[in-house]
């Protein structure tokens, strides 16, 4: 499956265009799809999507449906099972577009067929219905596994939950879908359907008299799904709703059965701090009422201990913040974070984010400014640590939005002083130009870079090649900088540029490989342009002839020079 933003639909149109189909499939598959139009049969349409059968070397079932990011296309052909928007999907899409105003009639016909089928099923007696079910059981083993689970659920109140547990865990087992230890993308959707059945069973058990057993089963299922997710190519996100269902079932079972608070706290802490806690991502705040004071205190102790043992761990930090946020709101969380402030202002920025989320923007801005002012000092250099880039961006955004351009420029000047990089120079230039102050700001910015090779890059980025040439002669330049300087001065100073190009060619004569040959060819073309401007083409011809004689064993280089007309 692939997707892209599709056209809006008013309910009478498909919600996508030919351009959408071409972009999803690529030109080749799109054109091949045009050739399959006559093979599309059994087109059906509902508000949830379009289905059809496409006949070719095989019989393929296609489904097109809207997706959050655009159009979702699935086909059970080999190309489609590998996750591609295949020619069969294109054919069904084009056939749908060809309906035009007739699409609502197809939807109505589909609904009528569905009603007719339901009416027929309602008319069948028990024996005929059982015969149909048995026929499906013989043809579809997965259907049988799902029915076994439904049967186990119906008998759970009489026979206990053991049978349900066995079948739920069986449905969450990835091994039937694995190849070489992983579930490939083409099989992930089928596994997600099976896992959804398991989640539905846990939810059903949680809503009945066996909620206590459902707590334990839900915990086992959450762990099993988290481990399974490590082996499933779930790039389409099919397991996320399954995980959400399991999380909701576990919480519902806990609220109904009220399990031992200490045991629940231990399991919750283990899950939150474990390697698979991202699926599902449980929020400890949801469990506070179930845990009660004693259970909540136990959870907090476990989380604090884990953070103490591994203070640099991202997971431990994140879970601690979740718990503290639930325990006492933003101020408790900030108090904890403020006890260990990073020297680059990153902790200050996280505090500012919490305050922004709490609707306290003035305090957030003050913390961000503190992060800039309270940076630690690098013992090796004696200089303050550069502020984390996101903190600089945050402050510039806040000050600019409020019209405080001088404050934004102050932050960016400090960042340039600390970093001395082309990126910092560009950010200052962009903000100063937006404020109409770049002409006055530029000299001071360049002085901050004096004596640094970054000054050459900044001048070239400004389009001031003459000044970059002077700076390169004063401070020295890296080889690639000399070539870029030569490119900038070539029209006005062809002799100086030529000398730089020839100097850049010299070390390449000792190198081999495509990159070296391509670079030498580019430099020779530039050198030839300088000789033409200077009227010394004969001198270039002699130089080139000598170079070709020296490099004649490099056959690929010779071919590249020939192709370039050198």
Task: Give the SSE map.
Layout: H1 18-25, H2 27-34, E1 40-46, E2 49-55, E3 59-67, E4 70-75, H3 78-81, H4 87-99, H5 103-123, H6 126-139, H7 141-159, H8 162-171, H9 185-206, H10 211-229, H11 239-257, H12 261-273, H13 288-309, H14 314-338, H15 346-357, H16 361-373, H17 389-401, H18 405-419, H19 422-434, H20 438-448, H21 454-461, H22 465-475, H23 479-489, H24 494-508, H25 514-534, H26 537-550, H27 555-563
Antiparallel strand pairs: 1-2, 2-3, 3-4
Backbone shape:
extended
Helix/sheet category:
mainly alpha
Q: Unreliable runs, pLDDT <50, ≥5 residues? A: 1-10
> Tell me about the biggest sheet?
4 strands, antiparallel
The residue-averaged pLDDT reads: 87
The percentage of residues in β strands lies in 5-15%
State the separation between the terminal residues, measured CA to CA. Answer: 49 Å
């Amino acid at each position: 499956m692939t997707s892209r933003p599709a056209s809006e639909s008013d309910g009478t149109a498909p919600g996508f265009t030919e351009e959408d189909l071409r972009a999803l499939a690529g030109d080749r598959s799109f054109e091949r799809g045009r050739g399959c139009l006559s093979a599309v049969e059994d087109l059906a349409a509902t508000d949830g999507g379009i289905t059809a059968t496409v006949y070719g070397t095989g019989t393929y079932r296609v489904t097109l449906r809207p997706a959050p990011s655009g159009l979702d296309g699935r086909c059970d052909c080999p190309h489609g099972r590998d996750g591609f928007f295949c020619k069969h999907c294109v054919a069904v899409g084009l056939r749908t577009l060809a309906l035009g105003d007739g699409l609502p009639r197809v939807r109505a016909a589909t609904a009528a067929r569905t009603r007719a089928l339901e009416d027929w099923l309602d008319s069948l007696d028990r024996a005929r219905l059982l015969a149909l079910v048995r026929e499906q059981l013989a043809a579809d083993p997965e259907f049988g596994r799902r029915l076994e689970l439904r049967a186990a659920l119906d008998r759970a109140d009489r026979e206990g939950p053991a049978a349900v547990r066995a079948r739920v865990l069986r449905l969450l087992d990835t091994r039937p879908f694995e190849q070489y230890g992983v579930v490939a993308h083409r099989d992930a959707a089928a596994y997600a359907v099976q896992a959804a059945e398991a989640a539905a069973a846990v939810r059903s058990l949680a809503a009945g008299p066996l909620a206590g057993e459902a707590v334990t089963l839900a915990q086992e299922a959450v762990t099993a799904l988290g481990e399974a997710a490590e082996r499933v190519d779930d790039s389409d996100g099919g397991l996320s709703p399954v995980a959400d269902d399991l999380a909701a079932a576990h919480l519902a079972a806990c609220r109904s059965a009220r399990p031992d608070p200490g045991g629940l706290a231990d399991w919750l802490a283990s899950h939150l701090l474990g390697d698979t806690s991202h699926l599902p991502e449980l929020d400890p705040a949801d469990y506070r009422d179930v845990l009660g004071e004693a259970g909540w205190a136990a959870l907090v102790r476990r989380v604090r201990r884990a953070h103490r043992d591994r203070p640099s761990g991202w997971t431990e930090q994140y879970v601690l913040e979740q718990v503290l946020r639930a325990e006492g709101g933003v101020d408790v969380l900030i108090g904890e974070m403020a006890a260990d402030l990073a020297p680059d202002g990153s902790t200050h920025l996280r505090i500012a984010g919490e305050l922004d989320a709490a609707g306290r923007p003035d305090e957030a801005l003050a913390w961000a400014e503190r992060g800039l002012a309270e940076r630690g000092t690098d013992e090796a250099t004696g200089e303050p640590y550069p502020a984390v880039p996101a903190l600089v961006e945050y402050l510039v955004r806040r000050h600019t939005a409020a019209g405080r351009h001088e404050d934004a420029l102050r932050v960016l000047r400090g960042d340039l002083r600390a970093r001395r990089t082309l990126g910092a120079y560009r950010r200052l230039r962009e903000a100063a130009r937006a404020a109409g102050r770049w002409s006055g700001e530029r000299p001071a910015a360049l002085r901050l870079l004096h004596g640094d090779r970054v000054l050459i890059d900044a001048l070239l980025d400004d389009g001031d090649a003459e000044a970059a040439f002077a700076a390169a002669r004063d401070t020295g330049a890296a080889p690639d900088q000399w070539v870029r300087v030569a490119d900038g001065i070539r029209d006005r100073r062809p002799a100086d540029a030529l000398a730089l190009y020839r100097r850049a060619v010299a070390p390449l004569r000792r190198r081999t490989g495509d990159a070296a040959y391509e670079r030498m060819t580019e430099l020779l073309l530039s050198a030839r342009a300088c000789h033409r401007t200077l009227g010394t083409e004969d001198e270039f011809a002699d130089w080139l002839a000598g170079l070709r004689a020296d490099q004649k064993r490099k056959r690929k280089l010779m071919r590249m020079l020939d192709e370039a007309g050198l």
